[in-house]
């Protein structure tokens, strides 16, 4: 009798490997298998491509990943790591399809990406700019099927590892931590009083910034305090001539969440001196006395000449 029940249970488990509602996440082997690592190709044989980086921030540009379709797979599991053994995995922001964003699997800590009708036959995803920890580094990635079009979770074996290298950006020296204020430069003298523009470097994942301009370094005499979604601000009013101004910036929103950062360093600059007023036209100078004398003598001579001419006719 006991043997009969054992055979019955074995038959049920073979017919129904995953009962509906039992779990909605794949059972996985989280750590790499030792034999799989032994079969992994040498580093030199791992296919690698190079992608660009922003020359100013040193962060990665958009990195595109694509792979061959496996049956009718709608969900894939993606792993990105800094080592070929995938023990130091990272989870950058991953986009796919028409506006989809990768989610983190609670069971494996890997990235789940969903294919739609537009890219199911040509699966692909891309890493958003600035989401990888550093430029000038090599990252490894692999993919496997996680869920079929029928809705059942079923893990395929991992693909062979691939790699990509982020080009290093230009060497940038930062004299202080946090956001880097770019323009106007600290200590600038003779800056324009009109159309004042301020720029700074981006803060990781920041979606909104707060800009403050003041007449004193303690920021008690605020000229303007404003928020902006970009790394620049333009002051449309006119500043005062020959005046010292102080400005700073901080992030106030990270990925749409109200998470303020520390203030940046404070920069100062001095506006241009007030231009000299145009010299008013001087009044006409008085006619010198000797000129009046000459004119008078000339008039007298003319009168005398006319008198003499009249008498001579008589």
* CATH uppermost class of the largest domain: Mainly Beta
Beta-strand share of residues: 25-35%
Biggest sheet overview: 7 strands, mixed
Overall tally of structural domains = 2
Quote the distance from N terminus to C terminus.
Answer: 176 Å
- Assembly context of the chains: single chain
According to CATH, the fold-level topology of the largest domain is Immunoglobulin-like
Overall pLDDT = 77
Low-confidence stretches: 1-38
Tally the beta strands.
Answer: 19
Helix count equals 3
Helix-strand pattern: HHEEEEEEEEEEEEEEEEEEEH
SS-derived structural category:
alpha+beta
Shape summary: elongated
What would you say the CATH architecture of the largest domain is? Sandwich
Q: What helical percentage do the residues reach?
A: 10-25%
What is the C-alpha radius of gyration, as a whole number of Å?
40 Å
Essential attributes:
single chain; 314 residues; alpha+beta; Immunoglobulin-like; 7-stranded mixed beta sheet; 5-stranded mixed beta sheet; 19 strands; 14% helix; disordered N terminus
Set down the secondary structure blueprint.
Layout: H1 2-15, H2 34-39, E1 48-51, E2 63-66, E3 73-81, E4 89-90, E5 94-96, E6 100-101, E7 103-104, E8 111-114, E9 124-127, E10 138-148, E11 162-166, E12 181-183, E13 188-191, E14 196-200, E15 206-214, E16 222-228, E17 232-235, E18 244-254, E19 267-271, H3 289-313
Parallel strand pairs: 1-11, 13-19
Antiparallel strand pairs: 2-9, 3-4, 3-8, 3-10, 5-6, 5-9, 7-8, 10-11, 12-14, 14-17, 15-16, 15-18, 18-19
């Amino acid at each position: 009798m006991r043997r009969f029940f054992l055979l019955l249970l074995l038959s049920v488990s073979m017919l129904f490997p995953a009962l509906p509602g039992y779990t909605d996440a794949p059972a996985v082997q989280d750590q790499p298998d030792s034999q799989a690592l032994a079969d992994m190709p040498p580093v030199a044989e791992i296919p690698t491509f190079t992608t660009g980086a922003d020359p100013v921030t040193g962060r990665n540009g958009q990195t595109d990943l694509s792979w061959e379709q496996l049956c009718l797979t709608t969900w894939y599991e993606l792993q990105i790591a800094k080592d070929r053994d995938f023990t130091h995995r990272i989870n950058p922001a991953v986009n796919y399809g028409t506006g989809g964003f990768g989610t983190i699997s609670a069971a494996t800590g890997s990235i789940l990406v969903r294919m739609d009708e537009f890219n199911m036959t040509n699966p692909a995803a891309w890493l958003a700019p600035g989401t990888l920890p550093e430029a000038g580094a090599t990252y490894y990635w692999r993919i496997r099927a996680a869920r079929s079009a029928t809705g059942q979770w079923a893990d395929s074996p991992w693909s062979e590892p691939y790699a990509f290298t982020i080009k290093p950006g230009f060497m940038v020296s930062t004299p202080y931590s946090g956001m880097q204020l770019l323009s106007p430069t600290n200590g600038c003298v003779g800056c324009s009083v009109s159309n004042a523009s301020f720029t700074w470097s981006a803060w990781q994942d920041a979606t909104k910034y707060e800009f403050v301009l003041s007449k004193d370094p303690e920021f008690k005499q605020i000229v303007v305090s404003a928020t902006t979604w970009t790394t620049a601000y333009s002051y449309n009013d006119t500043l005062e001539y020959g005046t010292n101004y102080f400005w700073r910036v901080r992030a106030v929103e990270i990925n749409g969440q109200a998470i303020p950062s520390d203030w940046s360093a404070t920069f100062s600059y001095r506006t241009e001196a007030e231009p000299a007023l145009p010299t008013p036209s001087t009044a006409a100078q008085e006619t010198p006395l000797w000129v009046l004398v000459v004119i008078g003598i000339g008039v007298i001579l003319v009168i005398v000449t006319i008198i003499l001419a009249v008498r001579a006719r008589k």
